[in-house]
Structure formats: C-alpha cells, structure tokens
Write a structure and sequence with these properties.
Length: 103
Amino acid sequence: MQTSLRRIAEKSVLQKEHRFQNLLMLINIRFLYWCWKKLNKRSAPGIDRMTAWQFGENLESNIAKLVESIKGGWYRAKLILRRCIPKPGGKIRPLGIPATSDK
C-alpha cells in the first residue's frame, strides 16, 4: 500500500470527524493491482455478468482503462445487481452485488 494511503488510514483512525476530499487522485495502476490481489476471485459477478477470472484475462488493459477513467473524471460505477436471499422466519435479506471492476 502507498505511504500516502497508509497516512490517510492512520489519520482516519485518530481523527474520526475529519472528512477527506479528492481521494480518487491517489488511485494508480500499482494500487489497483494490489486491490486485485486482495479481491475474492470466487465472488459473484455483478450486473455485467463478468467474473473475476474473465476480468483477469485482460487484467493489464482493464486496470489501465479503469485508471484512465478515474483520472479523467468520467468514471461511473455500474449498476448494482440486486438479489434477495431467504432468512430464518420467512424474511428476506437484500444483497447488492457490484460489477467486478467496481469491487
């Protein structure tokens, strides 16, 4: 993890009331590769039906496009896939599953 992100994490613990601004500028290719390594590759695909394995087939290109869209200011998260799972007692629990690129 980048030093600047580590400092932000420490500050967020010490100063809970502080509001950070413009954190998207800290995102870069190296950081997204780190996030990719941490991602659960067996997680459910989102609205675009792309699995983590499919996203990983063109990982360099996908991450480069993601960084370009974030830095360019035109990144928009995809819609969330809504699924409901049953709970005990007949109730349901709604789940929101993001697209792989948004995870």
